[in-house]
Design a protein that fits this description.
Elements lengths: L8 E6 L7 E8 L8 E9 L4 E6 L3 E9 L2 E5 L2 E5 L4 E4 L4 E5 L6 E9 L1
Antiparallel strand pairs: 1-2, 2-3, 3-10, 4-9, 5-8, 5-10, 6-7, 6-9
Amino acid sequence: MIKRAGTFNEEIRPNMLGGKGEVKLMHLMEGGEFQGKGRLFSINTIKPGCSIGSHQHKGDVEAYYVLKGEATYYDNGERTILKPGDMAFTDNMQSHGIENEGTEDVEVLALILYA
């Protein structure tokens, strides 16, 4: 299967998981394409002042790979800065959140797989 640029479904999520502002998701895979092994593979664009709220993963794991911008990342309550090329992994029953406190968009490749 080939998916061409410009054909991916995009979604705007206001106050994503209790976060601030809006986050745009460009879904790279959807539904049955995961063959029951996951539920999200997207590029998330977080504008300045926006965030994905801190949340716990139950029954799945998530990896973030930063493509663009600097993000404030909360790993089980611990605050750190992620830059392009950094990857963060959240295991089953662990919590995380991400915020854009900068002046340019943050783009994060996000993958959620079932535990």
